[in-house]
Amino acid sequence: MIEYLQKSKHHTELHLTQFGIESCIPRHFHGPAVRDYYLLHYILEGRGSFEVGGTTYTLGKGQGFLICPGVVTYYEADASHPWTYCWVGFNGTLAEWLLKQAGLTLSSPILHYNSDDRLYRYIQMMDDSKKDFPRSRESRLNGLLYLMLSELVESGPVEPNSPKSVRSEVYVEKVLDLIEVNYAQKITMEDIAHAIGLNRSYLCSLFKQRMNTSIQDYLIRCRINKACEMMGNAELSIGDISRSVGYNDPLLFSKMFKKVKGLSPKHYRTELQTEAGD
């Protein structure tokens, strides 16, 4: 079974180009050749060899290999016990990053996945989607590809512990990203610590050391800065803006706004309108 797909006009971050399952005859081979997309094979039964960059890998059930765009590769089924494999071809701006998260790169192209038959079942579901999801098939196929790659990321090699300074930067960056996305929600320090996976006191201390401000103060300033961006929209009332940045209590919003900006939301908007009229 094999299916080739047309180029996606909508899913530029990640999209399938082909997928299939094949039981190869002895010594069946491909290449030497290059592809202009990523091609990932997973071996269901049997054995074979994969050659890339002057290195030959002998592979069997539960293993696989990645072909990167523009790289010459050659692979051949074993003479006595030829492999059966499934594969997906894909591309997109996120493809390389997702593969790297799974430990798969040009210099490390071999896949190890012995957990279950889930990868095979995803390929089957891709095939079934032709009749089961005729109107939404492109999105369905992409969803299945994301699921497949998430399995590989989850089962991939664990990165060695980074130096403490590097880890702290990562945690702080996660806090910043979390606040950027969720500043409008009723988010607490406990929520943030739980999402990051660290003790609250430790995370707050780490953040203060790196940012010279507390997480709470950073969250307040983020909300007020977002509110200032909305002040120029005359269709939004002060109450609308207050609720849009996480303050259901307009009095508390006014208090926090004045604390950060030195004047009330109403006076800030008046000054903004005056400057715009000059």
From TrEMBL:
Matches recorded under InterPro entries: AraC-bd, Homeodomain-like_sf, HTH-like, HTH_AraC, HTH_AraC-typ_CS, Tscrpt_reg_AraC-type_HTH
Keywords: DNA-binding, Transcription, Transcription regulation
Presence of keyword Disulfide bond: no
PROSITE patterns, sorted: HTH_ARAC_FAMILY_1, HTH_ARAC_FAMILY_2
Listed SUPFAM superfamilies: Homeodomain-like, Regulatory protein AraC
Superkingdom per UniProt: Bacteria
HTH araC/xylS-type domain: residues covered: 173-271
Cross-referenced CDD domains: cupin_MmsR-like_N
UniProt KW Metal-binding keyword: no
Cleavable signal peptide: none
Protein name as catalogued: AraC family transcriptional regulator
Species: Paenibacillus hexagrammi
